[in-house]
């Protein structure tokens, strides 16, 4: 491990590409490597899995090295933090007061501990949506389309992609009218894929666009929860009209 850390430090000092990287510029590679690990595991090829796990580890090493250069933390701080978190989130393993819990009880305890950690970090409000994991993306679809475009399988301009999207939406509507779940799923996938293609033709990073929208949704929904909490209410106790009014308030607050 020490040899690997020293190698990473040497690369940062002597490789022009490595020197130019920042934590932000490197993040897309971490996401890509995580997908490649998933693909390798599905393939069942042991050598491939080993290689892709190494590539993913590289992203951790690289990020830690950059933050170490800033004097923020180093790799060993990451390791220690992870170790303490695992112990803290597994009281049913390391604390005799929490033995013999069921799987459901363990999951509930895990969520409770995570919420406590966020509050201790100064996050006063914990949204119900925080249980939804970050990082879901449409990266693979856009990558496939970009590759196909290099092989001349592409529209000449965005108008062609937009017409295809309109076509897929109409087919989705027809599937819905037919009440055919299998057909609906297929056409929904086709519509999403076509919309991603429109974004690609507009030279947009569809993954980042969607993640930005998800972040915006989280923020606005948290506003709704906070406003209702002041009245002693929860979202499930309100009708759609009440929630929509608060949603619009959240939008207006963003403009201030």
UniProtKB/TrEMBL annotation:
Residues 21-94, 167-220 form the NTP pyrophosphohydrolase MazG-like domain. GO terms for molecular function: nucleoside triphosphate diphosphatase activity. InterPro entries: MazG-like_dom, NTP-PPase_MazG-like_C, NTP-PPase_MazG-like_N, NTP_PyrPHydrolase_MazG. Keywords: Hydrolase. This is Nucleoside triphosphate pyrophosphohydrolase. One of its GO terms (biological process) is UTP catabolic process. The keyword Hydrolase applies. PANTHER family: NUCLEOSIDE TRIPHOSPHATE PYROPHOSPHOHYDROLASE.
């Amino acid at each position: 491990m020490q040899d690997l850390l020293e190698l990473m430090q040497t690369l940062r000092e002597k490789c022009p590409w490595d020197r130019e990287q920042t934590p932000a510029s490197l993040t897309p590679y971490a996401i890509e490597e995580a997908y490649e690990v998933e693909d390798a595991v599905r393939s069942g090829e042991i050598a491939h899995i080993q290689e892709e796990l190494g590539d993913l580890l590289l992203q951790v090493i690289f990020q830690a090295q950059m933050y170490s250069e800033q004097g923020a933390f180093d790799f060993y701080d990451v390791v220690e933090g992870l170790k303490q978190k695992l112990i803290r989130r597994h009281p049913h393993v390391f604390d005799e007061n929490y033995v013999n819990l069921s799987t459901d009880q363990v999951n509930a305890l895990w969520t409770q501990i995570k919420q406590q950690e966020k509050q201790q970090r100064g996050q006063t409000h914990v949204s119900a949506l925080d249980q939804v994991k970050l990082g879901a993306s449409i990266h693979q679809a856009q990558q496939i389309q970009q590759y196909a475009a290099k092989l001349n399988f592409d529209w000449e301009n965005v108008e062609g992609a937009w017409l295809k999207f309109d076509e897929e939406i109409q087919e989705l509507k027809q599937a819905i009218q037919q009440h055919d779940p299998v057909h609906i799923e297929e056409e929904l996938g086709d519509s999403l894929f076509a919309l991603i293609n429109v974004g690609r033709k507009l030279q947009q990073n569809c993954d980042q666009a969607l993640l930005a929208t998800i972040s915006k949704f989280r923020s606005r929904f948290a506003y709704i929860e906070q406003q209702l909490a002041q009245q002693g209410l929860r979202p499930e106790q309100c009708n759609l009209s009440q929630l929509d009014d608060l949603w619009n308030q959240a939008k207006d607050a963003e403009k201030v």
